[in-house]
Amino acid sequence: MNILPKAVIHLIESFERLPGIGPKTAQRLAFYLLHVPQEELDRFANNIKGIKTGTVLCNICKNVSERDPCAICQGEDRDKNTICVVEQPTDVLSIEKTGKYKGVYHVLHGAIDPLNNIGPDELYISDLLKRLSHARYRESSDQTASTIEIILATNTNMEGEATAMYLTKQLRGQSTMNNQQLTISRLAHGLPVGADIEYADEITLSRALEGRTVLLTT
Question: Are residues 91 and 38 in the same domain?
């Protein structure tokens, strides 16, 4: 026999579905919200609804934004020939906090993870390849073809490394096929092995960006 009201049980179950939230934390959050004024709860509920209705994916970089294209892709002070490839939108926030990076981004929204049935087709990898082809076409039209650098800033865990290896292979193939000038680099040692970009501090990320290692130049 369950002594909790159904409304509380359903809320606890909803919290448990969130990443990093266990049963006890879910219970604490649910009972905390019971003491929150209704006006604040309504505001909280509206904010949750707005996470979908008030955001879009940038059609260029796939980052989460209020407008399409996003502010970074539209920025005139951004180096469009340097593209930093990250796993999640939170990684963009972390790198932007360093104030050292002036290029643009491409967000994959995940990493290759066969154990969880996440393959290349589930990520925005094909969009990156199409983006590079378009960039080459635009540059060749005015006879100013320049080298594009792709910074692979996937995490240093097994999934992130597998994704970086796959991207390197795909990018090498595309650069050869399109006769494209391309430099592929990887973030340097500042990041501990197995660490996520999202949790790295600004100094560590700055050093990783500045000392990135070139993997391929075509």
Answer: no
